[in-house]
Design a protein that fits this description.
Blueprint lengths: L12 E5 L2 E6 L4 E7 L2 E2 L15 E4 L10 E2 L4 E2 L12 E5 L3 E7 L12 E10 L2 E10 L5 E3 L2 E2 L3 E2 L9 E2 L18 E5 L3 E6 L3 E8 L9 E5 L10 E7 L13 E3 L3 E13 L1
Antiparallel strand pairs: 1-2, 2-3, 3-4, 3-5, 5-13, 6-7, 8-9, 9-10, 10-11, 11-22, 12-21, 14-20, 15-17, 16-19, 17-18, 18-22, 19-20
GO molecular function, one term: isomerase activity
Pfam families: Aldose_epim
InterPro entries: Aldose_1/G6P_1-epimerase, Gal_mutarotase_sf_dom, GH-type_carb-bd
Length: 273
């Protein structure tokens, strides 16, 4: 085990409600820990310390890769999963049960994504539940396209992956994959709520809570690593606006009107056995 990975690390802000604990690393907008009673729901890279295989990161302004890495509308380049997880966020509010972070447009973001924006992430804890509210403010005189996604790594032993039970997403079947050598990496329609039963752990519900009667997370990417990867004891059920290259598809992405904001809410609820 990497000694520096013992929870909580010095970088982690801790939120608590009853027997539910959440950790957040504000600098990179990473939900690093979610635990209900004895069940550690999110994967921590205890052996490797690999920050790119950890917790619940936010992928913004784009999920996955753009074709040739190009944002066609502006002719700029954006990295896989955007820049949100690589730039420093600022804590704007904090209490024992919630933490709000902001990222604003800057000289670093404009060459990649030439818009004026404010992104606000609020992570809140309640009994057995993590609620993640993302607000994207467009401060421009033009429409701001955006296609974010959440990339949770849920902890599970390799031998238990084939024993996972899932009532979604639509079209997904645990039995359709050889988890040791050929795990899934596929998008599916997200039916607003999915329940997963983790062997010997409990039931996890992944849901989008509508905001102003509106749903935004229309797809779910299911992904894991083969057993040969240094980090592999996880499975990802990723609620997203749209899959790879979605920022280049106007009909699939979010298109935020000038001088307005768009909010979406993700909720994870864990019920231990």
């Amino acid at each position: 085990m990497v000694d520096s990975m013992q929870f909580p690390t010095p970088r982690e802000h801790v939120l608590r409600a009853g027997d539910t604990t959440i950790g957040v690393i504000p600098e990179i907008c990473l939900v690093s820990h979610f635990q209900v009673g004895p069940w550690q729901v999110l994967y921590r890279p205890q052996e490797t310390g690999n920050v790119t295989r950890w917790g619940l990161p936010l992928m913004i302004p784009n999920f996955a890769r753009l074709k040739d890495g190009i944002f066609k509308e502006k002719g700029t380049s954006l990295p896989i999963h955007g820049f949100g997880r690589n730039l420093p966020w600022t804590v704007t509010e904090e209490s024992e049960t919630s933490l709000s972070l902001q990222l604003e447009s800057s000289d670093v973001t404009r060459p990649q994504y030439p818009y004026e924006f404010t992104f606000t992430s609020t992570v809140a804890v309640s009994e057995a539940t993590l609620t993640y509210t993302l607000t994207m403010e467009n401060r421009n005189d033009e429409v701001m396209p955006i296609a974010p996604g959440f990339h949770p790594y849920f902890a599970i032993k390799q031998e238990d992956k084939k024993r996972l039970k899932a009532d979604g997403p639509t079209g997904f079947s645990v039995d359709a994959f050889q988890w040791d050598t050929n795990p899934p990496d596929n998008p599916y329609p997200f039916p607003r709520q999915v329940a997963l039963q983790f062997p010997n752990k409990g039931t996890l519900t992944i849901a989008e809570v509508p905001h102003s009667g509106q749903y935004s997370l229309h797809m779910m990417q299911v992904w894991s690593e083969p057993v040969t990867a240094p980090d592999h004891a996880f499975v990802c059920f990723e609620p997203i606006v749209t899959p790879a290259d979605g920022l280049n598809r106007p009909a699939d992405r979010l298109n935020i009107a000038p001088h307005s904001a768009h909010t979406l809410i993700l909720q994870l609820t864990a019920r231990p056995r």
